Amino acid sequence: MTIKELAAQTGYSVGTVSRVLNNHPNVSEKTRRAVLAAAEACSFQLNANAKQLKQQRSNTILVVVKGSSNELFGNLLEAIQAKISRTAYPLVVDYVDEDANAVERAVQLCREKKPLGIIFLGGNRQNFLSDFVQIELPSVLVTNSGLDLPFENLSSVTSDDRKACEAAIDHLVELGHRRIAIIGGGMGSDIARLRYEGCLLAFDRHHIPFDAQRDYVAVRFSYADGYRAVKTLLARGRQFTAVFAISDVMAIGAVRALQDSGLRVPEDVSVIGFDGLNIGEYTVPRLATLCQRVDELAGRCADILIDQIEHGVAPRHETIPCTAAWKESVGPLDPAKTAGGQD
Amino acid sequence: MTIKELAAQTGYSVGTVSRVLNNHPNVSEKTRRAVLAAAEACSFQLNANAKQLKQQRSNTILVVVKGSSNELFGNLLEAIQAKISRTAYPLVVDYVDEDANAVERAVQLCREKKPLGIIFLGGNRQNFLSDFVQIELPSVLVTNSGLDLPFENLSSVTSDDRKACEAAIDHLVELGHRRIAIIGGGMGSDIARLRYEGCLLAFDRHHIPFDAQRDYVAVRFSYADGYRAVKTLLARGRQFTAVFAISDVMAIGAVRALQDSGLRVPEDVSVIGFDGLNIGEYTVPRLATLCQRVDELAGRCADILIDQIEHGVAPRHETIPCTAAWKESVGPLDPAKTAGGQD
DNA sequence: TTGTAAGCGTTATCAC
DNA sequence: GTGATAACGCTTACAA
Prior knowledge:
The structure is a homodimer.
Chain A: H1 3-10, H2 14-21, H3 29-41, H4 48-55, E1 61-66, H5 71-83, E2 91-96, H6 102-113, E3 117-121, H7 125-131, E4 139-142, E5 154-159, H8 161-174, E6 180-184, H9 190-205, H10 212-215, E7 216-218, H11 223-235, E8 242-245, H12 248-260, E9 270-275, E10 288-291, H13 294-311, E11 317-320, E12 323-325, H14 335-342
Helix pairs in contact in A: 1-2, 1-3, 2-3, 5-13, 8-9, 11-12
The structure holds a DNA duplex.
């Protein structure tokens, strides 16, 4: 079924039918109704290829997701999809490998799909620096800040990673902990770096020296790596009474590793994660964490992008605070234990 | 950059350039190299809209995923994407709501995107019955069987749900359990029904009467629902010594609920899940489960679909066994406990 | 208010 | 082997 056939069927010309279908003015109400009725009757759909070829763009929003099995991004995507009504701007979702260059991929997809705008779920600063210049579409980076990225068309929405990490360390310190191990990421990851900085800031404020050689492990964002990280820390000699992992999946792996090593959480070692995944509410013990506000991140991301697309407003960089959830995996330092642990 | 400009640049005609770019014969080696070099130089990409408009189809494979935050489907998608090399057939992934009609959505997307074939990750039998007739493309349904669906163009790849559930019940019975509660889904879900049937078969074989009114709870596939299900069961009076949940997320919620109720897993109650999610390896206790073989499911799905697309072979319906992983959350029945528990 | 027709970037069918 | 050219289904001046 093409617009031509529909035109023949209704007795109008293709131009008129097209105008009706695209809600253009200058069509009589009578014509509009007739065409719409006929279109409805045969559940007519415009050929997207022809339309986009003609218009030199599609009406889609491209979402480039870094890594595909990641509960946080899954939730975020769901929330974004709910926010950007599917009918208004269909989302084209593309997954790239955790280590891939998401920006490069976006450049390619832009040429191919000509979307209206781009949402990056995760992304590496270095990749933006080197490749984003090729992208001229309104874009928003979620979960990473683009504040210091010099682009006229890049917004960002991110949790306040640094503050949240400070809060985590503060909380542990308030509970009496002094030897806090950190399970982080490599410094190639912007998020890992930012979160690490937050930790260092807090340690400084509390005048607690931090020896990264001893108490920092850089691993990937996975259960298995959290597990391994604890094993590594323990192999260096157990001197910590608390562990802060910069993601919930790492934290969950860490808890399991501690327990496998005969340590109780939180009685022997406290653990705090980051993200606020659903699963954290059902682990044993429930995972203390900094919750990223998924709905707000998604909401702001959608609003900003649509504003940029529809009204061409200037890019914005927003930071959304995390919500602390001090659940069962943290507890006060037991002085008796420490003495033993430090031996 | 268009093919026309590329033609001008190389001195050949658009026809020749098109032939080179599409690996058609009847092009001299010299020409081929010259055009390819020029295309490479300006990283030329054919305009997909124009191409597809002309060809009346795209070269994409449509993937309709039911529910978007589901680790199993996430893993499956990743494995399928790895298997179907992105360059050969780009995947267009579309998420539909857990309760939505995935087939109806596919019909719409087919009109719009003209893909080569469709992969359904999850789907409801009833929806296929009512709407699949409108789809003429090779399709494969994953994680649900389409064996008894009367369609010439629908294959399916599924785990052996029934057998796996029998195995779960067998295992519990062998460990001495007789009162086994089941956390399942509503009978509107084909998978839930199949798994329930497997359980009943096993109970029959062991001559264990099963009172669904007392020991079956139908909930949704989520942590929260697994949690609630146990609370419901306990409210009916605790008479079971083991729980079989038909998904890992339910099982994890169930474990937490048991522990919150002062029961130990597996000492007081054994728990078995279904799916084999990564997280199950890191919970406390590690979750006993029936692992769906994600890589094989994905591999067969991809192979079958590509065979259907490229060679028009008849649809196949394959069943892949699950792998039992009897991890820490199951244990033998302690007769002393039972006496107490039954009181 | 409606109709006509050019042209978007390809591919495919011709003729050469 | 190669080059012209029609056609794919649509939007959008411009003409009526």
